[in-house]
């Protein structure tokens, strides 16, 4: 029992060490990722993982939960204060089960409808996409963005009036602009729907006042805890004063949807780590951090535009940037692969009105939460844009065929060329040296 991981399982130990080095040596720019604090990881790796505690504080199915009750209540109290809400459930294991729990709490399978942004336009799978359980078990209607890459509230209102959804989801995976929760709430009120604000991406910006809060407007708020909020993987489901007024049963329905509806025992180590992250997120230094995320993203967007990158919606108001690569004649899959070889880790992404399939989309998505945690500032964004440009320049004109077989063959050849590209390997070295100036 006393053996360390290294002694017990050197294979996994070495893999973790290699991953640790990778995380240190690259520009980590996936907008949904971050580096958690040592304190969060300590709670996550604690003996709390040993406990079973089905139920809720003071209402458990197992004995021995006095301390776990306290931990869960601390997490609840901190979340309520930070988001200014009267109710929170901290047990959902991650963002997807949190959203599913809201639907299980409020919708009749097969007859009630979810209205969310289409995945192809930046919505999440769990906002009613047909591939997800949320679109299979419940009816759904998906809205899109306007041609300018912004939310089109008039079109959303028309669709809501026609489709009569029971839940409208506001909150996205790849949207770089401010969300007008007040407009969404007016639409939801008009059609008698609940407004669910899924702030998974922007929660950290919301608590720091860098993005308007949905609390006065939404009925229910869900968020992951591991993106801008910088906690462990996990989620919160919150009910606002407005939601409580509309339906005082919401807290009970949500608690019941989590257990017995969808889960058994909560992950108490995760709950404790969420509590730690919430404490960190209420500090002045976190507020400065969140403000720096947005400053960095705006400067990076401007720098990228100087290299003729075409940004969806023309820029950003938050932590992320979506680049349409069509003018660079390179596909998002090739670009993301080349960028990783060159030391910049981000993800391929569809762009609004994309004609390409999801595996070979026309864009890439990147963000500043993780590099800002490392201490990078506005002055560093110019260098990052320069490296991105150098890398993309190397793979320019690697467009994918619209024919499936040809595409598979092309992809294999592109990968081989990219992995052996000297300029990319030199860039990766430069980035490694640069990153080591920002120790984790
Ligand atoms: C808006 C939004 N909601 C929900 C989720 C799901 O979170 P998880 O991956 O933890 O299930 C994500 C994850 O990317 C997201 O972006």
Short characterization:
By secondary structure, this protein is α/β, with parallel strands linked by helices. It has helices spanning 5-8, 10-25, 38-44, 66-83, 95-106, 133-136, 153-163, 181-191, 203-207, 241-246, 250-262, 268-281, 284-306, 332-341, 369-373, 378-395, 404-419, 422-435; strands at 27-28, 55-56, 59-60, 87-89, 113-117, 139-143, 167-170, 194-198, 220-224, 235-239, 310-311, 320-324, 344-345, 347-349, 363-367. Pyridoxal-5'-phosphate (PLP) binds next to helix 5.
Which helices and strands, and how do they pair?
Layout: H1 5-8, H2 10-25, E1 27-28, H3 38-44, E2 55-56, E3 59-60, H4 66-83, E4 87-89, H5 95-106, E5 113-117, H6 133-136, E6 139-143, H7 153-163, E7 167-170, H8 181-191, E8 194-198, H9 203-207, E9 220-224, E10 235-239, H10 241-246, H11 250-262, H12 268-281, H13 284-306, E11 310-311, E12 320-324, H14 332-341, E13 344-345, E14 347-349, E15 363-367, H15 369-373, H16 378-395, H17 404-419, H18 422-435
Parallel strand pairs: 1-13, 5-6, 5-7, 7-8, 8-9
Antiparallel strand pairs: 2-3, 4-10, 9-10, 11-12, 12-15, 14-15
The structure holds pyridoxal-5'-phosphate.
């Amino acid at each position: 029992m006393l053996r360390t991981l290294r002694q017990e399982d050197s294979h996994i130990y070495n893999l973790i060490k290699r991953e640790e080095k990778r995380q240190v040596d690259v520009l980590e720019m996936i907008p949904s990722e971050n580096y958690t604090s040592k304190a969060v990881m300590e709670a996550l790796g604690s003996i709390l993982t040993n406990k079973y505690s089905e139920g809720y504080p003071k209402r458990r199915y197992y004995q021995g939960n006095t301390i776990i009750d306290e931990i869960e209540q601390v997490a609840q109290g901190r979340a309520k204060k930070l988001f200014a809400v009267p109710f929170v459930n901290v047990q959902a294991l991650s963002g997807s089960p949190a959203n599913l729990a809201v639907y299980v709490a409020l919708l009749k399978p097969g007859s009630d409808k979810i209205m969310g942004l289409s995945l192809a336009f930046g919505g999440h799978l769990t906002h009613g996409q047909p591939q997800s359980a949320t679109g299979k078990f419940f009816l759904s209607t998906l809205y899109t963005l306007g041609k300018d890459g912004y939310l089109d509230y008039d079109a959303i209102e028309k669709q809501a009036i026609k489709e009569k959804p029971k839940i409208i989801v506001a909150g996205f995976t790849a949207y770089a602009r401010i969300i007008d929760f007040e407009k969404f709430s007016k639409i939801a009120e008009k059609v008698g729907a609940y407004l669910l604000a899924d702030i998974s991406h922007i929660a950290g910006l919301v608590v720091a006042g860098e993005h308007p809060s949905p609390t006065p407007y939404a009925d229910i708020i869900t968020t992951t805890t591991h993106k801008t909020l910088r906690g462990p993987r996990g989620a919160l489901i919150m009910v606002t004063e407005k939601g409580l007024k509309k339906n005082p049963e919401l807290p009970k329905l949500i608690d019941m949807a989590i257990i017995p509806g969808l889960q058994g025992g909560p992950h108490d180590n995760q709950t404790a780590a969420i509590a730690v992250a919430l404490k960190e997120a209420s500090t002045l230094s976190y507020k400065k951090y969140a403000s720096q995320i947005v400053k960095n993203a705006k400067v990076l967007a401007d720098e990228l535009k100087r290299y003729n990158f075409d940004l969806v919606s023309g820029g950003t108001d938050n932590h992320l940037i979506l680049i349409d690569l069509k003018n660079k004649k390179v596909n998002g899959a090739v670009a993301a692969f080349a960028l990783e070889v060159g030391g910049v880790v981000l993800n391929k992404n569809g762009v609004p009105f994309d004609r390409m399939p999801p595996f070979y989309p026309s864009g890439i998505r990147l963000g500043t939460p993780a590099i800002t945690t490392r201490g990078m500032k506005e002055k560093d964004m110019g260098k990052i844009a320069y490296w991105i440009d150098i890398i993309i320049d190397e793979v320019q004109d690697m467009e994918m065929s619209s024919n499936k077989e040809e595409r598979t063959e092309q992809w294999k050849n592109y990968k081989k060329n990219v992995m052996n590209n000297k300029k990319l390997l030199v860039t990766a070295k430069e980035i490694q040296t640069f990153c080591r100036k920002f120790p984790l």
